[in-house]
Amino acid sequence: MIRKHFAGVAASALAMAVTAQAFAGTVTTDGADIVVKTKGGLEVATTDKEFSFKLGGRLQADYSQFDGIYTDNGDKADAAYIRRGFLELSGVLYTDWAYTINYDFSHNSGDSDNGYFDEASLAYNGFKPVSIKVGRFDPDFGLEKATSSKWVTAPERNAAYDLIDWANGHQNGLGIQASSTFADSFYASAGVFSKDTDDTDGNSIKQANGRFVFAPMHEAGNVLHFGLNVASRDVSDTAFDARYRSRLGMRGVETLGGNDAGPNGNRPVLGGANNSPAGSYDTDTAYGLEAAFAMGPASIQGEYISRKTKADSDAFEDLKGHGFYVQGAYTITGESRGYKVGKFDAIKPQNKSIGAWEVFYRFDSMTVEDDNITTASATRDVGDAEAKVHNLGVNWYANEAVKITAAYVKAKTDNVTNVNGDDDGKGVVVRAQYVF
């Protein structure tokens, strides 16, 4: 029945798309009236809000140049690629059910074996204010991760997230999550995920995530936000990638969706090793704190991240890492960043002629302790590895659909280098974004 009704809604949407190019307004049917919206994509919904169908997407085209530690030989390289190319389908079924299917044509989400889905989920919203979601979607961890990639300030999210890419990054298994926004100022979520990496018995890695947010001020231009995050996974009896590594804010060193720096791109490993044998480690745990404040066109935010991979063998030592970022942004044309409890949202230009202009600066810092390293290698000295990244840039929101970003990125490391011995590097990134 659901499949039949969905097909009817989809067919209606396609038919209305042609009509909507010439007319706007309400279309009367033999059932509930249908409203067609074409601003910011195509949306068809019944007036009783029982069914809806929305087709949208996002395109982010990046070009970057970088040198120093960002390449193996230290010479300048560049990259031109589609960072994200999403086709997004979402809607409501029988009032209480919601679905989301986002497919990434740039192949930076998912993989060839599991499909290139950024999300494929079904949610039940009948237990208001609690929503229960099941399917493939990213675990909930962190303010910048909760904020859509369309509306994060810098081209790439903070480098400290690289330490915990498993905790909030793309996953190819399935998960179930309960979340709720309540009392206007609180958000909470808890989820369990079954990843596609197996232990020696064929059991998938299990991961649990939790997030809690308190936002006593929660309107655009008037935000006070605090958050706490935790994630843990069982990696016992599992051969897995235990590397603590980072692109240091420069996606073009290694990416999909087009041209990157190829074999000369450098993604420094601060600790750990790939394909750690089963029985090496027991649990992998991450914690996060987040805070943000916004007043009018100005905003400041930051997060602290901590990770520990606990050893399960006398032959190995625990891996530990922590990092943070602090970011300030100011919209010189006066607009405020949008906000919904738990995340920031879009900046909507007030002036249709000049759009909205935003300047920003972000500082990222990471430290990794790996006492398994007792002898220096060509790229890693003994002792704690540290990395610091500066991001300075400008965003132009030409309108509600087009955003142009330019950023200067500079990185410095300690006890980790490229094969040429460089411990610093710099680069620029330019992005053209279109959303519908």
TrEMBL record:
Annotated region (Disordered), positions in chain: 256-275
Signal peptide boundaries: 1-24
Keywords assigned by UniProt, alphabetized: Signal
Pfam families: Porin_O_P
Protein known as: Porin
Organism: Pseudomonas viciae
Lineage of producing organism: Bacteria, Pseudomonadati, Pseudomonadota, Gammaproteobacteria, Pseudomonadales
